[in-house]
Amino acid sequence: VGPRGRRTLLASDSTGTGIELDAPYAVEVLTSSVGLQVLVADEATDALIVVDPVTLERTQFPGFDDALSTPRGLLKDPNRDVLYVSDFGRRLVYRFDLGTQQRTVLGSASVGRGVRMTAPVNLTYHPDDYLIVVDNNDALIAIDLATSERVYLSK
């Protein structure tokens, strides 16, 4: 929805070209040197799909080829050129450097210290430099972005 309430359909069976969206779950808007991009986590295709809001072309987001299993959450770090992606199927959270296009595991059952993350769904950022993860196992988990240590906020 634009500033005057004007709506634009970015993707459907009859609009745009490229990769089809099958089960879009999360969306994040990225700004870069190429302009505005809309990033969609599609859980049915296990892909991150970029939608160009001008041409409506849909393409695969780089750096995640065959890496995802049911992506559910997307979050652009407000202080870094980093994207966080929760992977429900693999039970982990990725940290993706948008500048270098390097992907690392930020938190999983074996990466980082602290409580076990079993089903990461949604993500948000806390100003004290924590990533807050909604875990589908009835928990809120905070990941310290400096140490990758995980603690329950609620269980």
Report strand %: over 45%
Q: What summary fits the major beta sheet? A: 5 strands, mixed
Main sheet: strand order: 1-5-4-3-2
Distance between the termini: 36 Å
Number of helices in the DSSP assignment:
0
State Rg: 16 Å
Give a structural overview:
The structure is a single chain. The N and C termini lie far apart (36 Å). A five-stranded mixed beta sheet has the order 1-5-4-3-2, with no helix packed on it. Strands 6-7-8-9 form a four-stranded antiparallel beta sheet, with no helix packed on it. Helices cover 0% and strands 49% of the residues. It is globular, with a radius of gyration of 16 Å. The mean pLDDT is 88. The protein has 155 residues and is mainly beta. A hairpin with a 2-residue loop joins β2 (24-32) and β3 (35-42). It has strands at residues 17-18, 24-32, 35-42, 47-51, 57-60, 71-76, 82-87, 92-97, 102-107, 120-126, 130-135, 139-144, 150-154. It has no helices and 13 strands.
Write a compact overview of the structure shown.
With 155 residues, the chain is mainly β. Helices cover 0% and strands 49% of the residues.
Strand-helix topology:
Blueprint: E1 17-18, E2 24-32, E3 35-42, E4 47-51, E5 57-60, E6 71-76, E7 82-87, E8 92-97, E9 102-107, E10 120-126, E11 130-135, E12 139-144, E13 150-154
Parallel strand pairs: 1-5
Antiparallel strand pairs: 2-3, 3-4, 4-5, 6-7, 7-8, 8-9, 10-11, 11-12, 12-13
